[in-house]
Design a protein that fits this description.
- InterPro entries: Smr_dom, Smr_dom_sf.
- It is a single chain.
- By secondary structure, the protein is of the alpha+beta class.
- It has a domain of about 110 residues: Ribosomal Protein S8, Chain: A, domain 1, CATH 3.30.1370.
- It is built from six helices and four strands.
- Helix 5 links the parallel strand 1 and strand 2.
- Helix 5 packs across helix 6.
- It is elongated and about 115 Å long.
């Protein structure tokens, strides 16, 4: 917007209007502020922002190398599970003395292939009256690239116990434990099935 000077005839018109104007509320006298008072007031103080000192992440920690890993490994979780089957049979199972009646090898399959294959195998084994089956998952490859979110070793190895504890397999499975070394060790699971009703 461009400002222009006020013409003398416009200024004269304004003065005529101002002389004839009346206040809306005449009972309240006008209190004009002197210009000098309004200029003498100090502007409000602006708060200064606090200065942030330089720092390095973790420089004030007390424990060096502390890692918050709240979830134990799959081997520890399986070993800590309560024994639901006969204790004598469980001891023989852990020593590798019981021979599995069936076996499925999921090693090399994707999760999309392995889950339905495992479900079908357990359902067929239970229907056939088998009690002990071996599920081979493989130990898995270490694919952790060191990113911010850790990648667990052995995707199938971690998912198979979870799948076995979900429907429709959960009512059929009595016990899950890692296999003995002669049957695959940490890369395989013994799955002890319930009796048919």
């Amino acid at each position: 917007m461009i400002r222009r000077r006020v013409k003398p005839e416009e200024l004269e018109l304004w003065h005529q209007v101002a002389r004839t104007a009346r206040r809306l509320n005449p009972e309240q006298p006008a209190k004009p502020q002197p210009l000098a008072d309004s200029l003498s007031k100090k502007p409000p103080k602006v708060k200064e922002r606090p200065r942030i000192e330089e720092f390095k992440l973790g420089e004030k920690t007390t424990k060096a190398g502390h890692i918050n890993d709240v979830l134990p490994g799959i081997s520890e979780r399986i070993a800590a599970a309560p024994v639901a089957m006969d204790k004598k049979a469980f001891t023989r199972l852990k020593r590798g003395k019981l021979v599995p009646e069936g076996k499925i090898d999921l090693h090399g399959m994707t999760m999309a292939q392995a889950h339905p294959a495992l479900t079908g195998f357990i359902l067929r084994s239970h229907a056939a009256g088998k009690r002990l089956v071996l599920v081979v998952t493989g130990k898995g490859k270490d694919r952790d690239t060191g990113g911010p979110i850790p990648v667990r070793q052995g995707v199938l190895r971690h998912n198979v116990p979870q799948w076995l504890r979900m429907d429709p397999l959960a009512p059929l499975v009595l016990q899950i434990t890692e296999a003995h070394l002669k049957h695959g060790g940490g890369g395989a699971y013994y799955v002890y099935l319930r009796r048919q009703r």
